[in-house]
Amino acid sequence: MRTPKLLYSSILGLIVLLATAVIIAFAVLANNQSDDTGTSMLLFDIGVYIAYALLLAAFVLALVFPLIKIITHLKASARTLISVGAVLLVFLISFLFSPANTGEFYDTHGVGPQLARMINAGLITTYISLIATIAVFIFAEISSSRKK
Asked: What is the Cα–Cα distance from 98 to 58, expressed in whole angstroms?
């Protein structure tokens, strides 16, 4: 029962990506082969908009199907939801402790204080995740060596 749903969603995703690639290829070819620039740009624009719509549909479906699975099987998804909550909590703590300082590099590239704070929060979250991962690996090795 589970394999057909996964197979159908995988096939649907591949069809959307293939259709997007075909539409972009058609739009590029139409742009290169037409002597009338107005018509070729119109075809190119239409192809790009259709490709954007298909990519947006694929993105929405890639978000909706897992959410439906999580909602329908809430008990089985409890560990996943706890993990997502933990990552969000780490990011929130990182954001609260990150400074809004902007240096010369940020000023040169037009980064304001709020964006600098988000960048710092992302860096702090990455560092905390790296340290936690290393700690889990060390703990797993120590606990597995004790069992032997």
From this structure: 35
